[in-house]
Design a protein that fits this description.
By secondary structure, this protein is mainly alpha-helical. The protein has helices spanning 5-22, 40-50, 55-66, 117-127, 131-155, 181-184, 212-227, 232-238, 246-266, 271-288, 325-335, 371-383, 387-404, 424-434, and strands spanning 38-39, 78-79, 165-166, 243-244, 289-290, 295-296, 298-300, 305-307, 409-410, 417-418. The chain has a four-stranded antiparallel β-sheet, with helices on one face. The structure holds (2R)-3-hydroxy-2-(alpha-D-mannopyranosyloxy)propanoic acid.
Amino acid sequence: MKIKKGERKKLIEESKKVLKQNHEVYFTKPSPTLYPNQYSWDSGFISIGYSHYDQEKAEQELITLFQGQWKNGMLPHVVYNKTRKTGEFPHRKFWKISLSKNSTSLHTSGITQPPIHATACKTIYQNAKDKERALGFLEYMYPRLLDYHQYLYNYRDPENEGLVYIRHPWESGMDNSPLWDGIINIIHFGKEIKYKRSDTRHKIPLLQRPTKKEYDVYIRLIERFKKSKYDEKMIYKKSPFIVQNVLFNSVLNKSNKDLLWISKKVDGPKSQIKKWITKTTNSINKKLWNRNEKFFNDFNVVSNKKVHGFASSGFMPLYSEDCNKKQAKELVKLLSSKAFKEKRKSFLIPSWDIRRDEFKKYNYWRGPIWININWFISKGLSKYGFKNKSEDIRKNSIELVKKSGFHEYFDPFTGEGYGTKKFSWTASLLIDFLFKKK
Ligand code: 2M8
């Protein structure tokens, strides 16, 4: 597929229109109806899109997000819309974050999401027309980013392994991935909790969303956090969901590298960041690499076992450049195998091994293609010299949007769009793909 000049221009205009429509006063929501509040990693991707044509909006996006940062450095996964009530569940009061001595006065969730933000800040600086202003932005963001990374290493890496854990499936960003089935299936929490989902009200077929059982677990975990007053030590001791996730740690380590780059720009301390980088690279390689399956696996800290199965997140050390050349070759082999590609005409990258029973081509993170994952992996492949494969994924992503619009996720076989429409990160990352330097 060749992208013609006129076509490129049109797609960029359409992408900008999606972002414009989703823009609220100080931030951009992920989609018009399904997600009316600010989401952490969504805003990271969104700011990367803006960085190509609106420096001010790109900076504003992250400045607003970090206003929700907790006293202990945690960056919450949702910062609720300050300008209007939105009727989303879990709603702003559900989290009861004031139970924590570390929370903020804004309404936020009590969990985090993959820490893409240092990478987004570096990108904003690199694409900025007004470098002086961008330097001021980096100076403002640097201590906040550092606090966030420090929180992750202080509280989410209690054994000092160089690997941080997630404590809720929503923290992975890949909410209902089959990766969590083994944990979800054995969680017993006692009496039923009553709540009303809001994600099922938006005319999206239920089969494209998580199940009731999955949602029960999401909500019950939050209830546990409230019971522990969001005390990280207590949660670590008692929670059934403590996972060292490949995607989260790869995104973190890429951000560590970009934070080091920022610290050079703003003349900040570097030695701690360098230590994080070395330790996390080593641990991703030692603990998360599965020699037999030749793939990166998450680690379930509670059961002390690897989490098996081929999820698209297992390719992420390509993005953070944390794998060696031999591993990279193995990953490319797998990406081209029947686990991820059925026939010549199918699209890359399904979020789960297409040969498995758990694979559902339309169900959220259990099979469909997501543009953010394609963006990560395409970037990573290019770094390791797999230019053609990287280009295939970039072109597949553009083709999917051209064919079906700015959907949240896509069918790996037909390219049909699923989930919500006019999805912000599909638009913003398409802009980045289309602005790719020749
Ligand atoms: C999805 O997650 C939220 C909960 O955090 C949801 O299902 O309501 C995920 O795809 C997540 O990665 C994303 O950040 C969020 C908003 O786009 O939606």
